[in-house]
Amino acid sequence: MSTDNSQQPAALDQAVHDGMAPYHRRALTFYDLIVFRGSAPLFWRCSPQNFRQMYTDCVGAKHLEIGVGTGYLLAHARFPVSNPHITLADLNPSTLDFTAERLAHFRTTKVVANALEPLPVPAESQDSAALSFLLHCIPGSLREKGVAIRHAAAAVKPGGTVFGSTVLSKGVPVTRAGRWLMDNLNAKGVFHNDQDDLEDLRDQLKQSFDDFDLVVRGSVGLFRARKG
C-alpha cells in the first residue's frame, strides 16, 4: 500500500539534477546487477553482504530511506515488525516509483525531497533513517553535503538509528581499477566524491552524534549512529 505526498522543492541545484538524470526506469532495471554484483565488489572491494547486514541490524519499524535507488537493500532487509512503514525520500520520481512498486507489500509513502534541504517529514518521527550510496552522488565536499546527515538525524526519534554508506576517494584504499572508474563517474557528473575524505566523514558524524561507528570496507565508508 503506497501513499504519495510528493512536493517538488522550489529550487534545485543543476548539478544535483544532472546527477540524478542517469537513474531513469530502464537504467534502474540493471542497477542492482551493475552496483551490487559489479562496482561494489569488483571496484570498491566491498561485498554486498556488508550493506545487507547493516540494514538487518539497523532498520526500524518506521524507516526513512533517503536516496532510494531501487529498494534492493530494503527488499532484502529483515525488519523488526511484520508491517513496517517506509518513507521513501528522493528527488527523482523514477526511483521513487520504481522502489514503491518493488516494496508494494509494505506500507510506503513517497516524498520528493532534496537531502541538502530540511526533509518534509515530521521531526523525530522515524525509528531509523538510511543514506546508502547517496553522499558520493551529491555535489560538494563532505564538509558541505554533510548537512544531509544532520537532516537525517533530525527526522529520527531519540534512540533511533541513522546509517549508511558512501564511496570515498581519500583516506581509504582505492585500487587502480577503482580510481579509473571513480574518475570516470566524476567526469560524467554521476559521482561527486573526488574530495570525499574518511576523516571529513568522521567529522560530520561527530557533529550530529556522540555514539557512532564508522568502518571501512575497501573504498567504502559504512556508518551507523544512535541518536541521543
UniProtKB/TrEMBL annotation:
Asked whether the UniProt record includes Transferase among its keywords, one would answer yes
Keyword tags:
Methyltransferase, Transferase
Could you say which EC number(s) this protein's record lists? 2.1.-.-
GO-annotated molecular function: methyltransferase activity
Domain Methyltransferase type spans what residues?
Answer: 64-161
Record carries keyword Methyltransferase:
yes
Instruction: Name the GO terms of the biological process aspect.
Output: methylation
> Which InterPro entries does this one have?
Methyltransf_12 (IPR013217), MeTrfase_VrtF (IPR016584), SAM-dependent_MTases_sf (IPR029063)
What sections of the protein cross the membrane?
none
Q: Which Pfam families has this protein been placed in?
A: Methyltransf_12 (PF08242)
Mind telling me what this protein is named? Class I SAM-dependent methyltransferase
